[in-house]
Amino acid sequence: MSEALHLFVAGGLVMYPLAFCSIVVVAIAIERFMYYRKAQSDMEKLIAEMPLLLGKNDIVGLKELLEADAGFPAMTIDTAVDHLGSNANQTAIVEGAASHGAALLRNYLNYLDVIVTMSPLLGLLGTVTGMISSFSVLSISEGQPFAITAGVGEALIATATGLLVAILALIVHTYLSHRLDGLVSDMERISSVYLAHVDNVRAGVSHEA
Fold first, then answer.
1. Residue 142 has what pLDDT?
2. Which positions ≥6 away from 28 have C-beta within 8 Å?
3. How big, in percent rounded to 5, are the helix, strand and coil portions of the chain?
4. What is the DSSP letter of 41?
5. In angstroms, what CA-CA distances link 2 with 6, 7, 9, 16, 154?
6. Is residue 124 a contact partner of residue 165, using CB atoms and an 8 Å limit?
7. 190 near 71, Cβ under 8 Å?
């Protein structure tokens, strides 16, 4: 622990923003992981039961199915089902709901992009300032040239830390982007199934209304 603290202090002031960036990366990773897990839908169940309910004009049963699932793909269709009795364009409603859902799923990922780019630059800045301080030894008459070696070694800690934070952020961003793509794909898939069957029941729903 004491050695790690020594390395942190030796890295200079830029170690503090780098430490903050690493905390942000971990916080985003945990928050998005839990959010994405909650946003998932049971796609096999929805695809199997939704056409049957639409075929029977069982809108109440369909609403119950979608609300029980509560995932983003299900909620996308639930928004459209709320407008079945109107003349609203179902395709436009589904696309709008899906776009809104995708925007919510992308929250905070842009911060990871910034950290991936900024962390190595912060590390490089810390190394440059540290090396400037190390080479200032030469301007002191009684300074020992060998002290430069240790000073440069400590200065490189900032660059190494910046690269580690950037690598961590990149791994997290890649994983979350993969999960995001999967959820968006699910929303598109369930939307296609819904739109393929909804035209057959809209007339009946409008007539009942």
1. 53
2. 108, 109, 111, 112, 172, 176
3. 85, 0, 15
4. -
5. 6, 9, 11, 17, 15
6. no
7. no
Nearest to 35 by CA among 174, 173, 176, 175: 176
> Can you read off the two tokens belonging to residue 90?
């179902």
Q: How far apart are CA 66 and CA 158, in angstroms?
A: 51
> Is 166 within 8 Å of 115 (Cβ atoms)?
yes
| Structural contact between residues 197 and 51, judged by C-beta atoms closer than 8 angstroms | yes
136: CB partners within 8 A, 6+ apart: none
Token couple for 145: 């040239």
**Could you tell me the mean pLDDT of each successive run of 10 residues in the chain, 209 residues long?**
73 89 97 96 94 89 93 94 84 93 94 96 88 64 55 78 96 97 95 86 51
**Residue 29 CA to its chain's centroid (Å):** 7
Dist. CA 72–CA 33, nearest whole Å:
14
**Please, are residues 29 and 176 in contact by the beta-carbon 8 Å criterion?**
yes
> Structure pTM?
0.83
Task: Return the closest-CA partner of residue 194 out of 34, 83, 32, 38.
Answer: 83
